[in-house]
Design goal:
Layout: E1 7-11, H1 21-37, E2 42-48, H2 49-52, E3 62-67, H3 74-78, H4 80-86, E4 91-94, E5 107-112, H5 116-119, H6 128-144, E6 147-150, H7 153-163, E7 170-172, H8 187-197, E8 203-207, H9 216-230, E9 235-239, H10 248-255, E10 262-264, H11 273-279, E11 282-285, H12 294-301, E12 306-309, H13 314-318, E13 323-325, H14 330-342, H15 344-358, H16 363-378
Parallel strand pairs: 1-2, 1-4, 2-3, 4-5, 5-6, 6-7, 8-9, 8-11, 9-10, 11-12, 12-13
Organism: candidate division Kazan bacterium RIFCSPLOWO2_01_FULL_48_13
Protein name: Glycosyl transferase family 1
GO biological process, one term: lipopolysaccharide biosynthetic process
C-alpha cells in the first residue's frame, strides 16, 4: 500500500532578511535537507517577494509561494491565513514565533529559537505596547501549535517556565554549523582579509551583534585588562556591522585607548567569515543569553579554540570543548583569555575537542528529527 502523501507548508518569510539571519539560515538548511530526505510529501515554502528570486533550493516536491506579508506586521495576522488556506496544507511549520495567532484551522508546528526579547528587549523595541505584543504572540503561538520545536534544552526550560507550556508538547532539535565552516588551508586569502580589516597581530575574535545581552562592553574591558596585566600583544576583532544604537562600544574603545588594537570590521560576507574564524588565535563569546549560540560552534568547526560565557545554553551546546567564564566578571574573562593566549598545548587540546564537538551536530539529523515531529502531528 503506498505511503500517504501530505502537503506541508514551511514559513520561510524570514529567509533573506537582515533582521533574522540565524532564523533564515535555519530555515534554508531545514528545507534543503528535508527535501533530500523526504521525497514522498509535498512541500510549500512561503517566502517574501524580496527573497523569492534567490531562495536557493529546488526539488520536484517543492513549490515556492511568494507572499506579500512581512513578519511582525498586522497583515501577517489578518491576511496571511487566507494564503495558507488556499495552499490546502495538512500542516504548517512556522520557523519562528511570529505566526497568525488567530488562525488555528491547520495543524501547526512552531520553532522557538530563544526568548531573548523576553529578557533583553533591546533599544530598538522601546514601545511598551510592542514588548507586550511580543509576549502575547509568542505565548499564543506556542498554545496554538500541535507541537513545539525548541533548539536547545535551555530554550525548552524557558518555554516551560515563562510560557507555562507542558514539556511533553516540546521536542528539542539542535541546529548545526553550516558546512562552509571547516579548517581551511589558503593563507593568501587570509592575509588578504587581514590587510582589508587592518589586522596586524594575533587576534581574539568575536562575531555577533552589539546588543546589550551580547556583553561587548565587558569584553572590551577584559581585553584591555588582558593587555595591561598579562602583557599579551593581541588585537581584538569585533566582527559585525557597526550599530549606531550602541555608541558606547566605540566610546569604550576610545576611553581605553584601544583604537589601534580593537578592530571593527563592519559587514563580513559569508565567504570571508570562515577565514576570520580560521585565522583567530581564540574565539571569545561573552553573551549573557543565547538560544543556541552558533558562532562558537562555527569557530569550533574551523578548528579555533573557544572560550565562552557559562550562561544559558552555551555549556549544553559546547560541552567540554570550551573553557568557560562568568560573563559578569571582567577579571575572570581576561584570565581565561590569557590562559588560552599563552598556552600552545591548551590551544591544541581545545582545537581537537572543538572539531569533535561540532561534528555532534548536523543539519541532516535536524531535518530527520523535524520530520519525525511532523509525522507525530499528522498521524
Amino acid at each position: 500500500m503506498p505511503e500517504k502523501t501530505y502537503t506541508i507548508g514551511i514559513d520561510a518569510r524570514l529567509f533573506g532578511t537582515a533582521q533574522a539571519t540565524g532564523v533564515g539560515q535555519y530555515t534554508e538548511e531545514l528545507v534543503r535537507h528535508l527535501v533530500k530526505r523526504d521525497t514522498v510529501n509535498q512541500y510549500r515554502v512561503f517566502v517574501t517577494g524580496e527573497a523569492s528570486s534567490h531562495f536557493p533550493i529546488y526539488a520536484p516536491n517543492l513549490t515556492k509561494l511568494t507572499v506579500p506579508f512581512r513578519h511582525y506586521t498586522y497583515s501577517e495576522q489578518f491576511w496571511y491565513p487566507a494564503i495558507l488556506r488556499q495552499a490546502k496544507l495538512d500542516l504548517i511549520h512556522y520557523t519562528n514565533f511570529n505566526s497568525p495567532i488567530f488562525f488555528t484551522k491547520i495543524n501547526s508546528v512552531v520553532t522557538i529559537h530563544d526568548l531573548t526579547l523576553w529578557f533583553f528587549p533591546g533599544r530598538k523595541q522601546t514601545s511598551v505596547f510592542k514588548r507586550l505584543l511580543y509576549r502575547v504572540v509568542i505565548r499564543q503561538a506556542c498554545r496554538n501549535a500541535r507541537h513545539i520545536i525548541a533548539i536547545t534544552e535551555a530554550t525548552q526550560r524557558d518555554i516551560v517556565k515563562l510560557l507555562k507550556i507542558d514539556p511533553a508538547k516540546i521536542t528539542v532539535v539542535h541546529e548545526a554549523a553550516s558546512e562552509r565552516y571547516h579548517q581551511l588551508v589558503q593563507p593568501a586569502k587570509l592575509e588578504q582579509l587581514k590587510r582589508k580589516f587592518n589586522i596586524t597581530k594575533p587576534y581574539f575574535l568575536y562575531i555577533g551583534q552589539w546588543r546589550s545581552h551580547k556583553n561587548v562592553i565587558r569584553l572590551i574591558r577584559a581585553f584591555a585588562l588582558l593587555r595591561r596585566r598579562y602583557q599579551l600583544d593581541y588585537q581584538l576583532v569585533l566582527g559585525s556591522k557597526i550599530d549606531p544604537a550602541y555608541p558606547e562600544v566605540q566610546a569604550t574603545i576610545k576611553e581605553l585607548n584601544l583604537s589601534d588594537d580593537v578592530v571593527l570590521t563592519g559587514y563580513i560576507t559569508d565567504d570571508e567569515l570562515p577565514y576570520l574564524y580560521n585565522g583567530a588565535e581564540c574565539f571569545v563569546f561573552p553573551s549573557l543569553y543565547e538560544g543556541f549560540g552558533l558562532p562558537p560552534l562555527e569557530a569550533m568547526a574551523c578548528g579555533t579554540p573557544v572560550v565562552s560565557a557559562n550562561t544559558s545554553c552555551l555549556p549544553e551546546v559546547l560541552g567540554d570543548a570550551a573553557i568557560y567564564f562568568d560573563p559578569l566578571n571582567i577579571e575572570e574573562m581576561a584570565k581565561v583569555m590569557a590562559e588560552v593566549g599563552r598556552n600552545y598545548s591548551l590551544k591544541r587540546e581545545l582545537k581537537a575537542k572543538g572539531i569533535k564537538q561540532a561534528r555532534l551536530y548536523s543539519f541532516d539529523r535536524m531535518a530527520e528529527e523535524t520530520l519525525a515531529v511532523y509525522r507525530r502531528v499528522l498521524r
